[in-house]
Automatic annotation (TrEMBL):
<dbReference type="InterPro" id="IPR002885">
    <property type="entry name" value="PPR_rpt"/>
</dbReference>
<dbReference type="Pfam" id="PF13812">
    <property type="entry name" value="PPR_3"/>
</dbReference>
<dbReference type="Pfam" id="PF23276">
    <property type="entry name" value="TPR_24"/>
</dbReference>
<keyword id="KW-0677">Repeat</keyword>
<protein>
    <recommendedName>
        <fullName>Pentatricopeptide repeat-containing protein-mitochondrial domain-containing protein</fullName>
    </recommendedName>
</protein>
<feature type="domain" description="Pentatricopeptide repeat-containing protein-mitochondrial">
    <location>
        <begin position="337"/>
        <end position="471"/>
    </location>
</feature>
<comment type="similarity">
    <text>Belongs to the CCM1 family.</text>
</comment>
<dbReference type="InterPro" id="IPR057027">
    <property type="entry name" value="TPR_mt"/>
</dbReference>
<feature type="repeat" description="PPR">
    <location>
        <begin position="532"/>
        <end position="566"/>
    </location>
</feature>
<comment type="function">
    <text>Regulates mitochondrial small subunit maturation by controlling 15S rRNA 5'-end processing. Localizes to the 5' precursor of the 15S rRNA in a position that is subsequently occupied by mS47 in the mature yeast mtSSU. Uses structure and sequence-specific RNA recognition, binding to a single-stranded region of the precursor and specifically recognizing bases -6 to -1. The exchange of Ccm1 for mS47 is coupled to the irreversible removal of precursor rRNA that is accompanied by conformational changes of the mitoribosomal proteins uS5m and mS26.</text>
</comment>
<comment type="subunit">
    <text>Binds to mitochondrial small subunit 15S rRNA.</text>
</comment>
<dbReference type="InterPro" id="IPR011990">
    <property type="entry name" value="TPR-like_helical_dom_sf"/>
</dbReference>
Amino acid sequence: MSSTTPKLVADGLWHCLCPLYSSAPLSTTRNALIRRRRPALQCAATRIPPPAAVRHNSTAPAVKFRGNVDVSPDLPRSDLPIMNAWVPLDEKKQSMPRETALRTTIRQKTTVKKADYPNLSTPELYELAHAAAAKGNSREVQWMVEYLVRDRRETPNLRLYSISILANVHPSEGSARRVAGLLQEMEEEGLQMNVQICHDVLRVLSVHMDYLLRIDILQYMRRQWLQLNNDGHHWVGAALFREGQLELGLTHLESMRRDNIPIQTWLYDIAMYSMLETNEFDEALVLVKDRIAADDWTISRNLWTHMLDRSAAAFHYSSTVYVWNSQVIPGYLIPSSGTCLNVLTTAARNGDAALATSVFHVLGKRSTTFKQIHYDQLLTTYMSTSPPDLRAAFTVLTIMASVKIPPTAVSTRPILTHLRRYPSDCTTVFDILTSLHESGRELPVAALNVLIEGYVETNQLEQALVAYKHMHLFERLPTDKSGNPIRRSRPFSTLETFNILLRGAAKPIAQQAYSLAMFLVSEMLALNIRPDYLVYDRLIVVCIQDQKLDIAYRYFDEMEELGFLPRPRTTELLAKSLAERRDDRCWDVLQRMQDRGAGVDEKGKERVEMAFFHAGGFEKEVESKGEEVKQEESK
């Protein structure tokens, strides 16, 4: 065969198109390959990218020789050019001799000084440079590449570019722009990317995001029939998740499973962290279940902790319950107290009493001092169940009283919400309180107040008064050494109790509201309970509704002396009621409130003026001014 004969590359595509072709003719082109050695990477064979996997359709035995060229077993290996740069990533370790692989592994763990470069052969320097590039040691790679080009007279080749590109994998010292510049240099040098360089670029782009360059590389590989190996699929998936293209990333994972590509743990971890950071808890939970279904139990404790923290902080129920039941209850994970509180809140929102009880059990094992917020969330949990567990909710209130954490009105809001929706359950609550008191439990005032408030909110004012008059029967008095009860120094009823009852008296539908209000005032004086601004405010409203404006104005003066301010709506109501009776004190009320910085808005003033006008107040004022003018003229 003459030297002008075109070179024949027996790659996978050739065997696919010509299955009857034998590898023997390659022996006739051996001399041509040797003559054009220059270096080996500049030969024509290196200009055609090899496929990542070679398919053999010929029956003749073949031998893999450090590249993608199939040769017959009788062809001497020493007569072919060195093509280390073309070894596929999956087959590189297998193609290397055992001694070389062992020596390379040892050298990857050691740092070679620049003074030792002359003592190493060129292949060893290439291997060391590639190992340093894989670690992201860009400075060491730069030294080795400069030494190879300057001292060893190595011409720019694909392997040097592969090493330089791979060195950009360092998260802070590398960049995608530098990789694009190296690819441009390769194009100017007339070098075409091979499968190794494509994978190096994809590896760098999994750290430094550049989706346009990644798309170009993948399209180039498809055009050249280059296939991604397992690592390449992982790097593409990692880049998609880090760029926030979650749907494409999940689709890529699904395609890897469909192609039976084993997915490594670190890619699953990146996918889960990305899902959790974007609050895609449902997809993160699906990934966890898929990993466990595939017998992948290598999920780290940090990832479990992060998943529980994020899910509980967002009150995502399904993922929180899954992590808690699979990791916390068996004892594999110990969540922080803050995470436990978030889990407790999640249980309260979803009415999961078992989860809330489990949280209390975990916190109790570490001797946590429970606070009001813990009991409030537990009570909310019982009221969120279907149907609500009223007895368990009031039992929580008794527990709070026994541990000297008096519940407040905030603690009982879930119970009040239920009573507003189901007024008939007020009777059930009264029976529950009676049962708890007879069993020896201490009932806090908040438990009785919420019952009275439930009666008031459902317009059962008479029942509210009955419950108030029976409050002293639920009081549990301490006893002395002789067993005699010790009277409390303060009353069992509180200011909040009277505010609730006055709220009911201030309703328009209340009958004999004024008499009820005066009864409550006398009760407060007898129990030595000092009223607050809300008591005075509601007394003014009751007096206005009963047409006792003088008493209402007197309470208004008393509020000002005590430094209290009525609510704006109450001030407007008092001024408007006085205006409707042609009482000039309406302007005094508005002016005094404006002087104290709590005046009525403009619309409220307009309503007062309109009421005064329709009552004839302005006509009376005009007549009085006219008489004054006549008297002055007569003088």
